[in-house]
Amino acid sequence: MGQWDGRRFPGEAASWAFAHGSSLAQGSRPILVDLDGTLSDPSHRRHLLQREPPNWIGFSLAARRDPANRALISWIGRNHLSSPIVIASGRPAYAMSLTRLWLAEHGVRWDAVALRPPLDTVRGIKHKVRVATALKTLGLVPEFAIDDSEAASLAYSAVGIRCFATLED
Asked: Which of 7, 80, 106, 125 is the most exposed place for a label (fewest CB within 10 A)?
């Protein structure tokens, strides 16, 4: 199995970042993991969306201070050491640097991060399905997904991907 060259990942599907030494090999079965509400707790910034109009830029940039879901991060680390991890988030591309910093700060192992492309305004759920479809097209069929959204879970199921829900405390 050869390694995928990141330039072959479709830019219209996502803004992609790849970890150094990524294990996204041809034929691998990545796990799709959501970020906001799944790996992180965005509750401290939700007030920014209750304004009219919602402050999406402020909401996205405040993600740097999100607390981590340590239990899920630890579970993934213990139980899926050999599985490639793809962070599939509806965050916009301009949040890539802070997202990578947050992942490093909280010890989240990842092989690829897929955020919405620049100027893309599709809902996060549609973006995640687009990412899953792009991966499948490249022969990287996701093993399963983890997401806090019931709608995302249904959308993943509709394209043949099992999705496990995370629960809020």
From this structure: 7
